[in-house]
UniProtKB/TrEMBL annotation:
Residues 53-150 are annotated as: Disordered. Residues 57-81, 92-101, 110-119 have a biased composition (Basic and acidic residues). It comes from Saccharopolyspora griseoalba. Residues 1-55 form the Lsr2 dimerization domain. This is Lsr2 family protein. InterPro entries: Lsr2-like_dimerization, Lsr2_dim_dom.
Length: 150
């Protein structure tokens, strides 16, 4: 199915048919306005006086881009150093785990359980108001993650 869309420009000043869309900027904000030929001429005439007296903004791209390049290079270097530190720590961890496995091959490697403070055991009351033993909750071990490649 074919579709045809017709766009009619309407002068934003008086609602008459417009011929042009004029784009201009003021204080860093860009505007667009649809104008008929008369209003376009008036706008250009008014702005022409100011355009002739104005100057083009200085291009700061070269300074900004060099500053950005230096900053990006510094960040890359910091990231490279951090990556090397992480790889070194991962290698030391792998070496330590391998050494522990060689020393005690029959024992599975388990993470150390957190030590409990000397706190009294909680008292659990059943429905009849009698004391019961608190349930033993199994410890959860977290997987070991490493970003280093073997």
């Amino acid at each position: 199915m074919a579709e045809r869309i017709k766009v009619d420009l309407v002068d934003d000043i008086d609602g008459s048919p417009a011929k042009h869309t004029v784009t201009f900027a003021l204080d860093g904000v860009t505007y667009e306005i649809d104008l008929n030929e008369g209003h376009e001429r008036q706008l250009r005439t008014v702005l022409n006086r100011y355009i002739k007296a104005a100057r083009s903004p200085k291009s700061e791209k070269s300074r900004t881009s060099k500053q950005q390049e230096r900053e990006e290079e510094r960040v890359r270097e910091e990231n490279k150093q951090l990556t090397e530190q992480i790889r070194g720590a991962a290698q030391r961890t792998r070496d330590r785990l391998k050494a522990e496995q060689v020393d005690a091959p029959s024992e599975p490697v388990r993470p150390a359980e957190p030590e409990r403070a000397d706190a009294p055991e909680p008292v659990v009351l059943n429905g009849g108001g009698e004391e019961t033993e608190p349930e033993q909750v199994p410890a959860v071990s977290l997987p070991l993650f490493s970003s280093a490649v073997d």
